[in-house]
Amino acid sequence: MSDYQLTPTTALEPGESVRESFRPDRTTYIRDHAWLAALAMGVGMVILWLMGNPYVWTGAVGGLAAIVVRGWYVASDELGARWDLTERRLLGPGTRVVPLGRIDKVRTIASAVQVVTIEGEKHLIRYQADPGRTRAAIEAARG
Length: 143
Hints:
Layout: E1 18-22, H1 26-50, H2 57-80, E2 83-86, E3 89-91, E4 97-99, E5 103-109, E6 112-117, E7 122-125, H3 131-142
Antiparallel strand pairs: 1-2, 2-3, 3-4, 5-6, 6-7
Helix pairs in contact: 1-2
């Protein structure tokens, strides 16, 4: 059996409670993959054109196929992840723990929220429907 967990497994400390949970949004996941597919299609076509390949259109097919397969393959993991915010810590999938006092920066990157610790560790909370709201909730909990 794998030790890989999609939800927090760290026990809450006495007096600690979950204020909010952050789960990926399926619509955001699909939208992000559609943009990624469009980019992959364009890049694939440009590469084939630069190589002098007369079948440039196959780059679009290949790019689309690659992203569709990737999206389908990792969807259950990506959409099953959960982060919990308590009044003391941010608890990530498995045993990831980020004490609120150790957070240096919280920023949005497209549909994700990146949490950077004072030590330089980086954590991504991906596919948020409203990454600004997720960021604001973490910032508010930090005080």
